[in-house]
Amino acid sequence: MLSFRKYVIIVIGSFLIAMGTNFFLVPQKVLDGGVIGIALIANYVFDLHIGFVIILCSVPIFIAAWVLNREIFYNSLSGMLISSFVIDLLSPYQGDVLRVFAPGAIPSAMIGGALIGTGLGLMLRNDASTGGTDLLAHFLSKYVPLNVGIIILLMDAVIIGIGGAVLSGNTFVNSIFTILSGGVATGLCTLKHGHRRTRRL
After folding, report:
1. b vs e for 110-132, b when ≥16 Cβ sit within 10 Å of the residue's Cβ?
2. How far is CA 6 from CA 121, 129, 147, 187, in A?
3. What Rg do the C-alpha atoms of the chain give, in angstroms?
4. d(CA 185, CA 118)
5. Tell me: the pLDDT tens digits for 38-70?
6. What is the CA 136 to chain-centroid distance, rounded?
7. Is 149 exposed, middle or buried (0-12, 13-18, 19+ CB in 10 A)?
């Protein structure tokens, strides 16, 4: 069972992830890596709820986690469910925030990535996560001769590449800024504890 303190950290991290996604990435149609990137593409193309798509995409990954590693399953499930719920919870407030603060595409990509990376970093620092492509890469590394970080990077590249092809070249370029700023933020949050830099949803 997760401690009360860990649940509080997960909720705080989830709000940061949701703010970065709803208030900075979505208005500019920018992508992130991982499962959240897939969910953003589904939102931009089919107008589906981001949190709902994250849960759908995560089901097979968490089934594998349940079978292969119960500890990872329990440490990641709450983070994925809570962050997905909060993303959809904050979605109706995009317009209110944009009326107050609406930076351009690249600043939005960087701010959004930093917020998402900070939210994930807080979770990782306290031994929680949102699962997603982190779990998939962890399992794939057992069967392919590649480092987990390389697998995550390749998956992120494929996701934003598909998004760029479906949406626009600007989406691809701006999404690179999201991934870079998110990676720096996650790394800074986990630096003192020596955690491996892990990607987001």
Report:
1. bbbbbbbbbbbbbbbbbebbbbb
2. 13, 10, 28, 19
3. 16
4. 5
5. 999 999 999 999 999 999 999 998 998 898 888
6. 14
7. middle
